[in-house]
Amino acid sequence: MIFIILIAFFSLIFLIILHELGHFLLAKKFGVKVEEFGIGLPPRLIGKKFGETLFSLNLLPFGAFVKIYGEEKHIKDHRSFSEKPFWQRASIILGGVVSFWIIAAILLSIVMSLGTIIAVSDEDNGDLINPRIQITAVAIDSPAEIAGIRPGDSVKEFKIIESVFKIQKVGEFQELIEEYKGQEIILTIERGREVFETSLTPRVFPPEGQGPIGISLARTAEKSYPWYEAPLRGIESTFYLTRAIIAGLVDVFKNLVLGRGLPPGVQLMGPVGIVTIMTQFVRLGLNYYLNFIAMLSIYLALFNLLPIPALDGGKLLFLIIEAVRKRPVEQKVEQKITTAFFILLISIIIWVTIKDIKQLF
Fold first, then answer.
1. Whether residue 20 lies in the annotated active site
2. N or C: which end of the chain has fewer CB within 10 A?
3. 119-223: what fold?
């Protein structure tokens, strides 16, 4: 268990390191001096200088950072970030964001080569490999969540009294749930190599948008692509995943603006919550895990693009304002705004982390 948690934790750290590497490489490309590339956050444990850049290992194992010359304050020097043209500074800022999409495309290309899970319809009975009814989402405090069912699980059997039904299609399962609402049922669940039974009672009057047991379902099967086709499929999958995630985020923000709260099944997660889910996907197998890491990379790319000071999108926003006004925002004003939003983000992360820890116990 400890080994699985470490895999998940260091995978998350590795994503952030690659994100910072994107900033680093673009800065070097445009001749900007990088003063430090740090793994972890200060205080510093050890550091060694290669060329003009100090590479450091720091005490707090939460991400990484790059210290770019002239980024935090205006310095008149041809090697300074602040002296470079708009498009080069924008490219350096976006380098970290783009790296997340590159990581996602590479991981999904590997998944496509090894064998990926694709959605198929109930009517598709062709040459399917390991078709299954898979749970794609579980609503908070629903009968399914209380019964220990998780996203990624597969439903193998439906039992009621002495009757056993093999589950092969989504429609069949939904009809059985509707028929036996209000009665205790037993589901046989497959999770990676583990198969177990769990009991629950479908609700007669479920909350809107959740259904009797509070899950979303998809019929899936396995499909692999030849090595020469896998990269194209990986890029295509990255594009479609990005589009789907944007649509989901728009729906979340729309609900928040209209005062409806978070949509059913959606919850905020901090590092602890993310690592917890990652450990679940490690158990499901390599393909599932790589798929999840790719999806997480896309989420991080989109999150970093938000026009919030202290994020890459916020830095880009200040650059655009500078381009429009023909002069930069006053340094003290920018620093105060960035610091305020940074404190706000850290506060939210701490609050969400405490909530995630409480859920673990």
1. yes
2. C
3. Pdz3 Domain (2.30.42)
